[in-house]
Structure formats: C-alpha cells, structure tokens
Please model this.
Amino acid sequence: MASRCPSGLSRCLSLAAVAFLLLFFVLIVRTLTRERLGFDTLAPCTRDDRDFIAVDDGAIDRFRQGLRFATVSIDEGQYDTEALDRLIQFIIQSYPVLHSSSRVKWQRVANYSLLYQIKGENQNLKPYLMMAHLDVVPADADEWDFPPFGADLHDGFIYARGAVDNKHAVFGILEAVEYLLKNKIPQRSFYISFGHDEEVMGSHGAKNVAKLLEDSGVQFEYIIDEGLVVSTKVLSFVAKPTAFIGVSEKGYMTVKLRANVTGGHASVPGRENSIGILANAVSRMLDTPHPSMLGTGPEVGMLENLAAELPFPVQVIMSNLWLFGPIVSRLMSMSPLMSAIIRTTTAVTMFNAGVKDNVLPSSAEAIVNHRIHPSQSVSEVFEYDRRIINDDRVQMETLYSMEPHPVSGFGSDDFGYQTIRSTINQIWGQNGIVILPGLFMAATDTKHFLKLSKNIYRFAPSVLELEDLKRIHGVNERISLQNYEEVPNFYYHLMINSDVESLGSDTHDKSSHEDF
Model:
C-alpha cells in the first residue's frame, strides 16, 4: 500500500498542475479577449470646427437669466407656477427659430411642462428623446456665498440654484437645437421634453408628457436624461478623466417601522420599551446590510471595461469576476460609494419617540430609505428587512416604492449607448477619457418613460469632482463657463451623430413614428 502512494501523489500533483495551467490559460485569454464597449472614430470637437457652437455673451446672458427664475418645487403639487410661467415665456422669446420653424411642433403640457417634436427628413428612422427639467429645489440664501437666484459670475463660475441640476441641460439643448435649425436639416426626428416638477417626482409634468407620447404610439430609439457625469478624480487610481453613462436607475422604497407597547412612568421602567425595541430593529438592519449583487447588474460592464486602464494583474481580476467576484465585492464594500453600486442600501432617515423626559413612550417610529439594486425587487427587499428584524412587535409599512429600472443595452451594437459614448469622447476625450456604463443611484423623470423605449440613458454633460457633488441640492451650486460652453456642443453633436441610419448593423430598428 505504501509503495503506491508516491505514484498516486505524483499523479495527483500532475493533474493539479494541469488544472492550474488550464485555469491560468483561461484567465489570460479572457483578459486579452474581453469585449470593449466602443471604438471612437469621430473627430474631436474643437474651437476650429465650422460647427463648433461658440457660447458668446448672449448665450451666457440667456442662461444666467434663466437661472434667475426661482422655479422652486417644494412638494408634490407645490411649485412656483408664476416663476415657471415667466421662464417659459422667456424661453419662447429667446429661441425664435425653434418656436416658429415649420419643422417643429411644440406645446405646453399640464400648463408648465414643454414638449417639442422636431421633424427629420428620413421618417423611416426611429426618433430619440432628450429630457431635462425646469424646476429646482429650494435654497437658503443665508448659507450661500452668493444669492442662489442671482446667477452671479465669480472666478469663472456661475453660482445659482439649478446651474447643474438641471437648467444647464435645458439651455444647452435650446442653444443646440436653435443652432441646428439655422444651419442643418436633421435626418432623424427627435423630441425634447422639459418637465416642471421633477424634483417632486414629476407626477404632474413628466408623467403627463409620457402619457401624451404613449397615446400617440411613439417609440424611441433611445432616451437621454440627466444622470452621471464627467470627472477627473472620482476614480483616483485612473489617470484619465472618467465619464459614466447611467444604464439603469436604482429602485426606491421608504419603509415606516413602528413599535407599540404600554407606556408608563420613567421611575419604574420595564426591561424594554418602544424605543429600545425599535432601536434594536434598526440596529439589526444596519448591522446586516443587503447582500452584494456584484456579477448580476451593470457594475460588471463597468468593472470589466475599467480593467484596460489598470495594471495587468488587476486586469486579470476585473476580467474574471466569475472567479474573483467575492474578493472584489469585499473590497468594494469597504467604500460607501462602491458599496452602493453593488447592493441595495439602507439609510435610517427619521426616528421619532417620546413626548416628555419622565414618560415612557407607548410608541416609536422610524423611517428607513432603501435604494434598490436592479437585480432585486421591492418585495424582496421588504421580505429581507422583515427576516432581519425578526420581531413581531415591530410593524412594517411601505410608504412609497418604485421598482429598479431595467438595464439598457451598452454593448457595441446598442445605438443609443454608442452614440452618447462617441459624443462624450468628441467633447471631452481630446487627451483621452474612460467612458463606462454605470448605475444611477438617484431618481429621474425617466421612471415615467419606461414604456417608450428599452434604451434609456442617464448622463449629464457636467464636469464635476467629488467635492462638487455636495453642491447639488446643497450650498453654492455652480458651473464653470468652460463647462457651460461644452453643454450645447455636447447636445448639438449628439443630434448630428444620431442622424446616421445605424451603427453598421442591418438589424437596426427603423420603425416609423406618429406625431403627438
């Protein structure tokens, strides 16, 4: 028996070596042959181009004037209708070609939203839709260095509420389409939608626009709305600027937790009270986060295409998440931002209990907000919470929920994604740029348009760093003059690039469409 061991051991070692070499071969081949998400052949946009839109003092003044209209949304159905009306009148007066061209049909929807149809020459090409919103969130002037609705110009920046959320897109689109109609004949028809209450869920503006379009039977080749941005420092380990195109949007759920017990006097407390019961439930939720979904959502495309910018050993890891996924997941979970990309997040946003310092409260309530990963559903998240809390004394109620959005295509044959990608490269890629699919973690008006296209993308032509992100919905929101000049050029080149019939595939859908 002992004499056969060396032979058996040798055979086992040989098999292990063959298996290791085979695995090594597979890892290297997958790394070297991974699909790249686009190849850029379009010339970069420069000031010397004949079709470069030079943003002159007039364009800057129009934008600054638009920022001065305090189109604030406070809550659902509560927005400044007078400011919205004055902004719309200003838009109509400032862009006469758009509002008088025989190619354009436009209308006000639900009084304060705007919808445009620009007719192209080739009616066999499926149209696309560009979106933005007219409203902004409130701003406390006492906290700002400049008046939030003054649009002051300081050190090359325009400071105003709405500067990057989202009036730069509104006026960038307007400048671009005005220029287009003066200088070119569009081949592909396109639509523009400006909602008036996006900041309070868009239930009056975008929802009605979407219903109008649905009733007309229109379907879009792709839709682009606000979303992810261009940055030079978000990924510190990547030397080039990085742009993310949101190919999906996280779901949303607000849950109310409530514990009810018999109250009493604080001088004779029992072992537990409503606050303690609810605090334990909340603690369990925070200590047991939702599982990592790495490998099931759009983050896979992001990581695999990011690999090309990393050292080769890291490329091997990122290109083979089927094997190294658990390690990558653990590392990503150490960063709040990276963790939010790969899982459903849990945030306790409110906790209410007690009325007096010497009275045991009979009830306690907490509000928990979830942003749901595209690979999960509202019901799955609710059930996970229930199992983690595991206490029948804690009542759970869903106050509001929205399912995650479907993941739009981001492959080499996906017309909308590749057109947006190529346009980003034209505007910001002169010295190299990394363009990746991403997951948008906030909420947009696209939730109302999911029936109108399978290809919905979320990208804002903003150049922002991590320290700038806190200005959105925060204090001292601003945009640089350089960035604002890039905005209309981005949208104009997007219009031009969308005029091609296809990306070279005979299977590209060229469905017709109807007028709204």
The CA atoms of residues 76 and 498 lie 35 Å apart. The first strand starts at residue 73 and ends at 75. The mean pLDDT is 91.
